[in-house]
Amino acid sequence: MVQQVTCGIKISVETSFEGTFYKNYKVHFAFGYKVTIENQSKVSVQLNSRHWRILDALNNDEIVDGEGVIGKKPVLKPGESHTYNSGCLLTSPFGAMHGHYNMINFTDSKKFKVTIPSFKLSAPFALN
């Protein structure tokens, strides 16, 4: 698990390998990840959007931007957390992801970014 705190918001990420399959005559490697967003600050915040950079061992680089997470824009009061599961496909058995969440502080209406720490994606059979 990787963790990072930005502006009082703690991001924790756990990953899992989900398997391989063929799509368009190419093998793909499926990975899952569970993200927990914990508000350790003294103010209420809302997650509005996300930005991901997904890299694989074959130098493929994908940028994903979108509103909220899994169709939600969670509001977190001090001490609250939100957990969600998602996943991605790679064309190699190794990769990494990182990014940030765009959030808003409800006390002063200021927008701020929360870093999603870099985490590795690796198929266990491909490890030494």
From TrEMBL:
Signal peptide: none annotated. Residues 3-128 form the ApaG domain. It comes from the Bacteria. Gene3D superfamilies: ApaG domain. This is Co2+/Mg2+ efflux protein ApaG. It comes from Psychroserpens burtonensis.
